[in-house]
Amino acid sequence: MPNRRKAKGVARTLDVLRALNQANGSTVAELHALTDVSRPALYRILDEFRAAGYVARDHRGAFHLTHLVRCLSDGYRHEDRITEVVSPVLDELQRRVLWPTDLALYANHAMHLRETTRRQSALVIDQAQVGLRLPIFASAVGLAYISHCDDTERDAIVHALRKSERPEDHVARDPRRVGQLIRQTRTDGYASRYMGAIPGLTSTGTGTIALPLLHRSRVCACIAITFFSKVLKVDEAASRYLGDLKAACAEIERQLARGQTEGRSARR
Question: Which residue of 34, 189, 221, 227 has the fewest C-beta atoms within 10 A of its own C-beta?
Fold first, then answer.
């Protein structure tokens, strides 16, 4: 009996997720009509989804899926597709600017380094490796992401980070500071980190500028250039390299869009 009840609970949870996928932005009453799951059970399931970051609730009480559900549908295949497109562009960007270039993707309330050109760069910046966790508010790629994702996802990220015990996430508890960082990033036209320490890196004497990558009108990843802060200030780096970074973004987005169009043609 316990196993049967557990299986039924899992099936019910999947029914709710499937209903949200088909009717994103539904209220509990609407989900009840779609799934026949009781309202108390729906609230429990949706609260668990919200705690895990998969669902956010808007001002009218409707529930929306967040970016994290991509991990459930596309899994690593989506990340692999992005990496496949981005890697050669990052290599070319690194050859032009000399400094290391990076690709970071969002998952579980943080950015994660998915690709880096540090191994072929003559400039040894730090020991960052693929898989490194990069905090949202203490990294340029994190600021680029949260400054350009949609409002629902941003609210869900900030809400989750307010509960984090990691020191680098505590800024999420200060709404005024969060607003300042997002406004500054949008005003500058790029995200930046200057000499701030990031857990996992041995050197803090670096700066970074980053931009978001857009696919299907949503942020899917961020790319960045990291440099020695003793050699360049952020505004100097932006003056020299922002044009190259923007061109790299445009090329990646063009290739991602072309792949989407080719996929639709193949399905036809």
Answer: 189
Give the model confidence (pLDDT) of 167-216 as tens digits.
Answer: 889 999 999 999 999 999 999 999 998 655 565 554 568 889 999 999 88
Find the largest Cα–Cα distance for the chain. Answer: 67
> In which domain, by residue range, is 186 found?
72-267
Taking residue 155's Cβ as centre, other Cβ atoms within 10 Å add up to: 17
User: What's the CATH code of the domain at 170?
Assistant: 3.30.450.40
Query: Does one domain contain both 166 and 263?
Result: yes
3-state secondary structure the chain: CHHHHHHHHHHHHHHHHHHHHHCCCECHHHHHHHHCCCHHHHHHHHHHHHHHCCEEECCCCCEEECHHHHHHHCHHHHHHHHHHHHHHHHHHHHHHHCCCEEEEEEECCEEEEEEECHHHCCCCCCCCCCCCEECCCCCHHHHHHHHHCCHHHHHHHHHHHCCCCCHHHHHHHCHHHHHHHHHHHHHHCCEEEECCCCCCCCCCCEEEEEEEEEECCEEEEEEEEEEECCCCCHHHHHHHHHHHHHHHHHHHHHHHHHHHHHHHHHHC
pTM of the model: 0.67
Strand partners, 111: 106, 134
Q: Which residue has the tokens 């390299």?
A: 241
